[in-house]
Amino acid sequence: MKALVIDCTLKKSPKPSLRAVDLAAAPGAVADAGAGDEWPENRPVAYDRVAGVVVTGNEDDAHHVTSEISEALADVGYSNPGQAWTYWHLGPGPGPDCLPDYLEEPKGRGWAHGTGRTMADSLIGVARALTAQPLRVSG
After folding, report:
1. What span, in angstroms and rounded, lies between the C-alpha atoms of 126 and 106?
2. Closest listed residue to residue 98, CA positions, set 24, 78, 90
3. Residue 117 has what pLDDT?
């Protein structure tokens, strides 16, 4: 089993990695966007693949961000199993009580770890199912 992680940060990579900002990726959801398109293998990577979403930060707007990203992933063909997301729940937020490091805040940690484990189980289960029975893509 392999994993492809696309980090959509706007900062350039200090080390080799696959980040959308490091590629000359043409817009659109097509197999070949023309000369200069650097999307991996110049084809959609979505079919027979699963995707999940991890939102860093606290609960504020996490559901909105998760839904937007999940929809974008589904639009290009990724399978999104149920509970294929997690976010930091009830951690520090804005204001004077905000800690400088989320790792120091125990509040909500169990919930985030539990949803993270469920997310992993869902992604692995669907990936195994797709490996055993790939999706048909009609052209």
Report:
1. 31
2. 90
3. 92
